[in-house]
Amino acid sequence: MYAKIEVKQVRLKIDPSLCKGCTACEKICMKVHNSTMPRIFVIKKGEKVKISACNQCGLCAKICSVGAITKEGEAFIINPSLCVGCKLCYYICPSGAIEMVPSFNKYNPIIAQKCDLCKDKGFSPSCAKVCRTKAITVEEK
């Protein structure tokens, strides 16, 4: 008899109706990833607020022709050294959560970037921790 292995799936649960547009999630994301561009976006249009973040659906990994996007732990991760900047993942992403960012590789000037659920923090998303209104929470499946 084989032992049943429980596989925990984590994703961000977003309720834009609770968001006040403070952008604390964007700020902590940039700080955690030591970046000038966040991996979560708060988009304000008048009184309406939308939060764009990766929902870990995996479509990007399926379409990546060079295998730069793989499932690692709780999240689909983009390996920047393998990304060729073809933008296939960018175009297929249903939540608009993939951004093309400058690369330091002279042969490949742009690469894809997206939320990694704070992989380096043990897949404990910092954006959910700083969200005072609970517009961003962590959902386990």
From TrEMBL:
<keyword id="KW-0408">Iron</keyword>
<dbReference type="Pfam" id="PF00037">
    <property type="entry name" value="Fer4"/>
</dbReference>
<dbReference type="GO" id="GO:0051539">
    <property type="term" value="F:4 iron, 4 sulfur cluster binding"/>
</dbReference>
<keyword id="KW-0479">Metal-binding</keyword>
<dbReference type="GO" id="GO:0046872">
    <property type="term" value="F:metal ion binding"/>
</dbReference>
<dbReference type="InterPro" id="IPR017900">
    <property type="entry name" value="4Fe4S_Fe_S_CS"/>
</dbReference>
<keyword id="KW-0004">4Fe-4S</keyword>
<dbReference type="InterPro" id="IPR050294">
    <property type="entry name" value="RnfB_subfamily"/>
</dbReference>
<feature type="domain" description="4Fe-4S ferredoxin-type">
    <location>
        <begin position="74"/>
        <end position="103"/>
    </location>
</feature>
<dbReference type="Pfam" id="PF12800">
    <property type="entry name" value="Fer4_4"/>
</dbReference>
<dbReference type="InterPro" id="IPR017896">
    <property type="entry name" value="4Fe4S_Fe-S-bd"/>
</dbReference>
<protein>
    <recommendedName>
        <fullName>4Fe-4S ferredoxin-type domain-containing protein</fullName>
    </recommendedName>
</protein>
<feature type="domain" description="4Fe-4S ferredoxin-type">
    <location>
        <begin position="45"/>
        <end position="73"/>
    </location>
</feature>
<feature type="domain" description="4Fe-4S ferredoxin-type">
    <location>
        <begin position="10"/>
        <end position="40"/>
    </location>
</feature>
<keyword id="KW-0411">Iron-sulfur</keyword>
